[in-house]
Amino acid sequence: MPLIDINKPEMIKFLVETYEKTARLRMRWNTHNADKLRFAATLNREEKGYEDIDVTKATMELGLPGLKRDSITDARNRRLKHVMDGNIPGIESLQKGHSIVEVDLGNPKDDPKLARPDTDLSIDPIMRPVNPKQKKIIYKGRPYFGREVYLTNRCKAQLPEDRYYFAETSSWAYGWRLKDSSLKSRGPQHGRVWRLSREISRTGPAPDPAHYQKPRKDPGVC
């Protein structure tokens, strides 16, 4: 939004009238609420003579019972000696109980990358190993083999959980590892895909004319 030009005479007149109107409204409000303002500004109770140091002192006194209680509770810990030769977790303890093998998501026999020592902090593999039968598809000739056939068998025929250890994209959150569920999924009982394809292939929003429809069994009626 462009800035207004305050040098124009009509704009100066408009601003002056606006300021005067605002001042009159404020004066009217102060006059109308004069009694309330006078009552709020008058101290009707007896002064206690408190200062800032008194407020701080009262706040500190409220916390003294808690300090006494904590001191009694921590008396036993203060008498304990410091552990000098304890077992401090190191690098070899970072992956304990959290690796892909320990959570039963992979087997080192199937994927040699998972057979690593505890001191190895490299990133876990993202994808599962490729089936040797699928690898052979790449090195054979087309059209029944080759790169396109390999990608079809690898990506379209296999579920994401058969190719990856974890859900790498947010779109996989729905339907991830459905085989682990006791409720088995099944396809739709009605032709929703066919209905969607028919609606998309139409030429426009209006329905097709009657003569576009397929003829019935009776040859005399179209």
UniProtKB/TrEMBL annotation:
The Sperm microtubule inner protein 1 C-terminal domain covers: 107-209
- Superkingdom is Eukaryota
Identify the stretch(es) annotated as Disordered. 183-222
Q: Matching InterPro entries, A to Z?
A: SPMIP1_C (IPR054323)
Instruction: Extract the PANTHER family matched here.
Output: PROTEIN ATP6V1FNB-LIKE (PTHR35826:SF1)
Q: What is this protein called?
A: Sperm microtubule inner protein 1 C-terminal domain-containing protein
Q: What is the source species?
A: Spodoptera littoralis
